Amino acid sequence: MSDNERGSGRQREWKLKKGLDAFGNIFGINVCFVIGCLPVITVGASLAAAYAMSIRLQENEEETVLRGFIHEFKRSFKQATIAWIGVLVVAAVLVAEWILVNTQTGAISIFYTIVFYLELLFSALALAYLFPLIARFKTTAKQAAKNSILLSVGYIFSFIKITVAWVAPIALSIIYPIIFLHTWYLWLLVFFGAIIWGTSHTVRYVIGQNEEALKNTEEELAEEERKKEEAERLKEEGREILKQEEAKRLERAAAKAEEEAEEVAEEAEETEETAKPE
Hints:
Layout: H1 3-36, H2 43-58, H3 65-75, H4 77-103, H5 106-128, H6 130-136, H7 141-154, H8 156-175, H9 177-209, H10 211-275
Helix pairs in contact: 1-2, 1-3, 1-9, 2-3, 2-4, 2-6, 2-9, 4-5, 5-7, 6-7, 7-8, 8-9
């Protein structure tokens, strides 16, 4: 066997191993994601954790999927849940507006339709990188949405890739129920994980190009949070000082009242002594 053939064989083995590792990671991420979504309200935290693990595994960080997923789920739970509730509210508003659009006719219908699609586009821009940013950085849901819009506009083709990767298979399953009936078990096993794994490559590239700016934003938020904590601490100290001063004032007032009571008692005794017959 020639060196070229041996080299080609090793390359095929390496590609096969890499493919099997990727499939195993996709399966593990998918199962963790689906289980994490069961309470519904935790979909955001589950999605953030899935993206965090996908990116870390693609960056060859040695860690088991389950342990890493649980850690990331807990870490991003608060902000990811806030973001998910915001997504549900926006979705409900868009559905209501779509129903309203379909009840209108003429020029007002055209106006409402334009407004609806602008709002839909704006929501998609905010959603594209929302949960990956929450997974990657210590940030708030509001700031993550702002950064997602900026990244989506700045990397419009990447935004389109991510949006199509999520919307196309889900839309097909909804529009053509027969497809879902034949593939529902694949959603439970690999489809979500495959979408997350595939879009993570794009997310890593875009975030990597803006890592420094995003970290600066993270540091600014941390500084702002520190200032808020400091202000709250000073307020608490101020309240404690006021309590202490109030307690001292009440103590002085009580002491003064006691002295006055003693004086009144002494005067009463003197009066009694004076009033006694000789």
